[in-house]
Hints:
Layout: H1 3-8, E1 12-16, H2 19-27, E2 31-35, H3 45-71, E3 74-81, H4 82-85, E4 93-96, H5 108-120, H6 127-134, E5 140-143, E6 162-168, E7 174-178, H7 194-218, E8 221-222, H8 223-232, H9 242-256, H10 263-274, H11 281-293, E9 304-310, E10 313-318, E11 326-329, E12 334-337, E13 350-351, H12 355-358, H13 380-391, E14 394-403, E15 409-415, H14 417-423, E16 428-434, E17 442-449, H15 453-465
Parallel strand pairs: 1-2, 4-5
Antiparallel strand pairs: 3-6, 3-8, 6-7, 9-10, 9-13, 10-11, 12-17, 14-15, 16-17
Helix pairs in contact: 5-6, 5-7, 7-9, 7-10, 8-9, 9-10, 14-15
Amino acid sequence: MSSNKLLKEKLKIINLGIESFHQTALAHGAKSLHVDWKPPLVFDKKLQELLEKNRSKIEAANLKALAIVNRGRPMLIGLAQAGEVIPGMKKNLILHAGPPIEWARMCGPMRGAIIGALLYEGLAHNEEDAASLAASSQVEYSPCHEHQTVGPMAGVVSFSMPVFILENSEYKNRAYCTMNEGLGKVLRYGAYSLEVITKLRWMEKTLYPILKEAISFAGPVDLKNIIAQALHMGDELHNRNRAGTSLFYRSIAPHILKTKAERQAQIDVLNFINGNDHFFLNLSMPASKVSLDAARGIENSSMLTAMARNGTDFGIQLSAMNGRWFVGPAEVPDALFFPGFSKADANPDIGDSAITETAGLGGFAIAASPAIVQFVGGVAQDAINYTMQMYEISVGENSVYQIPYLNFRGTPTGIDLIKVVEKNILPFIDTGVAHKKAGIGQVGAGVLSAPAMPFKLAYEEFVKGLLSH
């Protein structure tokens, strides 16, 4: 087109970057096309050249990792007390959610949960003694993830707590998780009052032995099958577990009635599970972990094997850099708060439950559960948009977990660090919200994107590491 003709044409705009410019142009009657593009999180010419030389082997390694995740078969095989089965567990060790952290840097809800755990274990007799003991060298702390374990919110696991035992029947690795207490004022949200400790002891003395015996009657429970069905029924297996809990209830209830426990205890256990829509969360989390852990240690793979938050820091781990944490500050979710609370009361994001997103569930599968975006005033299309965006940063799709609205397309699975950085699209997470002060508990539920810093740090180290191969 000649310059003379170009000047005679009506102005048409191609907008890159800030979308409000595009909206302003449309409002003034101009024709505008918005290009959804952002600069990469990291741009270093030397790193980019090194990455390009190795891109084909990275992609091959990621496909290998994804295939392992897809072949995984998480099975619930039993329950035991943490000290009996969790690797490295000992009486003075407290496991917590997220990357490593010391007492001095812990947030309010994590401190509250640790105080509660020490009271529950009988290692302290009041709040003051528990806090003093927790701050001393007599108590050790370690991330759940470093002991084949995951924990929601504060994620605290102590020696006597009952835990689910999951086995990946395809690869024989195991994962562990405590049983879910329910919502509100509970240990995992940092509450430690007498009613919290009383419930934990009931779970140990009544719920645990009955459920353990029932699972022995049921035989291994196929959690992958339950998760697949729950996605078809409106769950995304992080913030909504109503269908998953119902399906688990149906599978285990007949066996609870076979146990030797008194009838009233059986009824109490059935009512507890039935009245706790989040009961299955503590199964979907270790099911995700046991599937991802089998894909650890694959050379050249940029696929994430963990995302976790301790209420102070947000950490990620990669398959190729097995066990190494890349950490940045945790952020406060956008949320729907309970009456009387606001974002000013909220603690930064906390918990190991982002392992569900890492495995293609939760925020990555939110198109299967659009009601969740109502937490932040969203509409059903927002949920679909979030999931569609997550396909852009995933290695591929799940071969079993499907989203009905997307014509049963597999959920976006296997977060690819390289795609996150190059496309500047951060993983989307839905989550619960704890009060920032110890002892108060849950104050809401909401959504957020992962912070950029851990991905920037991991990218730089991962690409530099290609030089040694």
